[in-house]
Specification:
This protein has a 4-stranded mixed sheet with strand order 2-1-4-3, with helices on one face. It is built from 1 helix and 4 strands, in the order ββαββ. The chain is an alpha+beta fold. The longest helix has 15 residues, at 28-42. The protein has one helix at residues 28-42, and strands at residues 3-9, 22-24, 45-48, 53-58. The protein has one domain (3-58). The protein is globular, with a radius of gyration of 11 Å. InterPro entries: YpzH. Pfam families: YIEGIA_cap.
């Protein structure tokens, strides 16, 4: 089963924590850059939710 290991968003109030670390970037391009960097660091997959948020998912575990 997959699990969410991190969330990257552009609006602090739109992303609520649920056990995964949350990273807020005010600019969409910076949020994308952070998500792709975390994707490599965490060995996870970044998924763009098309609402200013990215989720990083571990599909292996």
């Amino acid at each position: 089963m997959a699990r969410i290991v991190a969330v990257v968003g552009t609006k602090a109030g739109a992303v609520l924590g649920g056990g995964a670390p949350v990273f807020i970037e005010t600019e969409p391009a910076k949020a994308e850059q952070t998500a792709f960097l975390l994707e490599k660091i965490l060995d996870a997959n970044a998924h763009d939710l098309k609402n200013g948020s990215f989720i990083l998912v571990d599909h292996k575990g």
